[in-house]
Design a protein that fits this description.
- The chain is mainly alpha-helical.
- It folds into 2 domains: 83 residues, no CATH class; 50 residues.
- The protein contains 6 helices and no strands.
- The chain is elongated.
- It comes from Uria aalge.
Amino acid sequence: SGSDGGPPVPAAPGRAQVFAAVVDTFLEKLVTAGSYQRFANCYRCFYRLQPEMTRSIYDQFVSQLQTSIKEEIQDVKDEGNLEVLFNSLDKMVEEAKDHKEPAWRPSGIPEEDVRSAMVPYLLKHRSYLQKVLKEKEEENRRVAESVLAGRDRIAELQQLIQARKLAWQ
């Protein structure tokens, strides 16, 4: 970028900007394809009688066509939440640049692909289950100690009751 003394590299345009540029180019090409000359040729008789009116009708037609296409595209962008999706896609691409390891690609052998995708997940799940098992075993050990301590206390109380009963008699 600009830290090495050279001119700063401009940021690549976002997907929303690219989409807008594509739409504008499409509209330009549409207007070019439907030029006034072609329009006048289609309505030659009318053009010969009323050239100014023909030009006015053409200008209104093209203007209305562009406006309605832009509105339709804006509706599609709004309904599909395209601005947000484009921005989040740009963000994902930007974040992915930091990853050094190559992205996963299928090998063409389904068994290996499934194994390569599933084994890390299953190993992670196994380690999670082992952790939960250790926690439960520790909890059970504490409960067992508590139960044994309770039994010892009951035995002590029974002996105490027996001793007092004998002393009372």
